[in-house]
Amino acid sequence: MKRREVLRYGALGTLVMAGLAAGIGTLGGIMLLLRPRRASAPAPAETSAPTQPPLPPPPIVSRADWGARPPDHTAPNETGFADSARDDGWFAYVGDLAAVYNTVVIHHTATFPAQDETMADVQALHMDRNGWADVGYHFAIDANGVVYEGRDVHVRGSSVAGHNSGVMGVVLMGNFERGQPTAAQLQALQPLVNWLAQTYALSHLAAHREFNSDSLCPGDNLMPYLDSVAQVAGLQRGTDGYVPPV
Ligand SMILES: [Zn+2]
Q1: What does the pLDDT look like over 84-136, one tens digit per residue?
Q2: Dist. CA 90–CA 240, nearest whole Å
Q3: How far is it, in rounded angstroms, from Cα 32 to Cα 91?
Q4: How many angstroms does the Cα of residue 138 sit away from the middle of ligand 1?
């Protein structure tokens, strides 16, 4: 210990120095004596909710980077999955998205095998076959666990017939009625859902089939993972978070 550090303790240092001079202090005793008193922190208010630091977004391949086509606002069937016949097809949310979104819905693309599937394939299917204005999902995860940006999150998705408002659509590429999700996909799904749940103040995670009982999506082999994904992300399971448009 340097002398000036001892001196910083003033009277205590003097006492220790005196102890040293008297040859009665052990090194351990000196260290104990010199330990600064811990400042007493104010007790946290018991009513304050714990605040979590913002999660960073996972790596996401942007639309520009996967070569997305721009939305087609003349698409004939963008209203096909809308919540009601009165809904406009291309519906841009206004205001705080955290107040808009409530549920993340998990899908599979139902293609098999999935290894060669690309985001351009998914978008082409939705635009050219389904007649939608853009890819219907907001995010996608390929078999290698790469996460892609889908439809702009500021726009209502087209993935859950009659229940798209406030729903964040996430698809895993593959057919999980026939195959298994890859470990890489599942490892990518959790941090994506964690981030979505926090960023958009979500309350629920649902499977597509839970909204649309005529659908097998996202497949029997993906369903067993959803409870755990929801729990880790702090979300309730099921469709109760859905709020119909007013
Ligand atoms: Zn689906």
Answers
A1: 888 888 999 999 999 999 999 999 999 877 778 999 999 999 999 999 999 99
A2: 25
A3: 67
A4: 12
CA-to-CA dists, residue 11 to 7, 17, 31, 91, angstroms = 8, 10, 15, 73
Residue whose pair of structure tokens reads 């998705």 in the numeric block:
157
The two beta strands, 204-207 and 236-237, are parallel
DSSP state string for 53-97: PPPPPPP-B-HHHHTPPPP-TT-TTGGGG-SSTTS-SS-B--S-H
**DSSP three-state, residue 50:** coil
Within a 13 Å sphere around the CA of 154, how many CA atoms are in the beta-carbon half? 5
Span from the CA of 198 to the centroid of ligand 1 (angstroms): 23
Distance 238 CA to ligand 1 centre (A): 14
Say whether pTM exceeds 0.85.
no
